[in-house]
Structures are given as structure tokens and as C-alpha cells.
Amino acid sequence: MKKIFPLSVPGHQPPRVIESIKNDVRKYVKRERRKPLPEGVDFWDFTCKVGYDEATPEPKHIAEINAAIDQATVQNATSIYLEILSFPATRLGGKAKDPAKEKAPSRPAKPDFLKKKPASRPKPEARAKNRTRRPQ
Predict the structure, then answer these.
(1) 126 by DSSP, 3-state: which?
(2) What is the dihedral of CA 100, 103, 105, 109, to 10 degrees?
(3) Residue 96: burial class (beta carbons within 10 Å; 0-12, 13-18, 19+)
């Protein structure tokens, strides 16, 4: 995603415009993370750049984007340029997981209070003894 967001939109309050920009970024990141991973890859990583225009973006970590957007509003910028590109990556500390060797997660057992209990009904003989006849 390479986009220039205006920070002041006529007819909208500035805090709502900022929240909509942050929401667009969150939606894009979630959408990219939902994509299927290629073989031998652990996760989707992101290359991010933030600036006031396309000419001067600075590299940032994905977690620092919201703070950069807030800083742009404090400095009374008219717009902000965001560049977020995803790429597949592997973890440094270990090997990639082999999906063929992984077991499917088993369903957790139901807690005791959700399990069905047998109905406690008196035996037929006991019910017959407890009945009383009405006088006629």
C-alpha cells in the first residue's frame, strides 16, 4: 500500500480523520496477514515508510506507524505518506514449521458443568406407591 492521506478533510473532524487513517492501516495489515504463506515461511513481515510526502519517507517499524501518524498531526502537517509492503519471512531462532508434520488441534474437553447429566427419575414402582387415589 502506497498512499498519501490528507489529514484535514472538509466536513470531518480531525480526530475522526486520524482514526480512519489508522483503521485503514490496520485493515490492510490484517488482510495481508490472512494471505496463505508460501512453503518454508513462518510469517508475513512488513517494510514501512512514513513521511509528509513521497520524496522524504523515513523507514519505520509496523508498530511505530500509529505514533508517526499522531506526530504528523501534532506538527500540523497537511498530509501524510504511508508505504507498507508485505513480504514472506522466517523466524531467526528456528526452522519453518512443516504443515505435513503438524497435528490438527484437538478439541478441548467440555467443562463438567456443560456435560449432560443423566436425568434422576424415580423407578416406576416407586412412582406407583407414591400415588394416592382421590375419593369419589
Answers:
(1) helix
(2) 160
(3) middle
CA 76 – CA 69 distance, rounded (Å): 11
Q: How far is the C-alpha of 9 from the C-alpha of 36, rounded, in Å?
A: 36
Instruction: Tell me the sheet residues that pair with 83.
Output: 2, 49
Q: Which candidate, 83, 78, 95, places its Cα nearest to that of 9?
A: 78
Alpha carbons 29 and 14: distance in angstroms, whole number:
23
| Domain boundary assignment for the chain | 2-89
β-bridge mates for residue 82, sequence order: 3, 50
Give me the DSSP letters along 23-47.
Answer: HHHHHHHHHHHHSPPPTT--EEEEE
Contact between residue 7 and residue 80 where contact means Cβ atoms under 8 Å apart: yes
11-14 own/partner pairs: CB under 8 Å, 24+ apart: 14/73
Q: What is the pLDDT along the chain (136 residues), one digit of tens a residue?
A: 999 999 999 999 999 999 999 999 999 999 999 999 999 999 999 999 999 989 989 999 999 999 999 999 999 999 999 999 999 999 887 555 555 555 656 667 767 767 776 666 666 665 555 666 666 6
